[in-house]
Amino acid sequence: MNRLPQRIATGVYQIALSGVHAFLIDLDSGGLLLVDAGFARSGRRIGEAIRDLGRAPTDLRAIVLTHLHRDHSGALAEVKSRTGAEVWMHPADAALVRDGMFARPLEPGPGVLRSGVARLSALRPASPGEPIAVEHEVDDGETLPFAGLRAVHTPGHTAGHLALLLPRDGGVLFVGDAATNFPRLSWGRSTRT
Question: Does CATH number 3.60.15.10 belong to domain 6-176?
Answer without folding.
Answer: yes
